[in-house]
Amino acid sequence: MSTRPVRPLGVMILALLRERDMHPYEMMRLLRHRRENRLVSIQNGTFYNQIAGLVRDGWIAEAGTDREGNRPERTTYTLLPAGAAEIVSWVRERLGSTDRPDEFAVALAEAHNLPREEVVVLLRQRVDQLATLRDEYQGGYTGALAKPVDRQYLVELQRAIALLNADIEFTESLCADLAAGALQWGEPSESHRASQHFIAGKDDA
Fold first, then answer.
1. Which residues pair with 75 in a beta bridge?
2. Same domain flag for 161 and 89
3. Which one, 19, 87, 105, 193, has the greatest CB density within 10 A?
């Protein structure tokens, strides 16, 4: 089994295959339909390279091939147990941390692969880290104004503080919804399943 870290796109592929077996073109359509290309770049060549890497590293395997009409055969892939465990490990490692903000966005998008109680614990850990960083920035900002430093030189720091406050507020609200059971979690809703089947049945290749 590979010890190389899975990239964010690879994690999203693993998460798709946790829903059901798919072929790469179907995965790409589904990711684009869900607007996941906001989080990762989805280019044909890179995507197929990711698939090959996930097979090589033992996370997924070929499940079979199918053909529609006179189109080329398409290989369908399935998630292996090691790949399912890697999703959980990857999301868990990044969800409670502020170290890798780009990867955190993917971890949050895939957080439903973890139990809601664990997600609440991890996100509250992250809130504590964000609050510490926000207080550090706020202290520096207040100290600079007292020197005094012209505010025109501090606008970026002011923005950073505002973004941290917004992140904290959002995360605390999300944790409250999860803890109260006000947010469906884990199993997809019927509307989500219907959307997925619509994409799977649409053939515009």
1. 65
2. no
3. 87
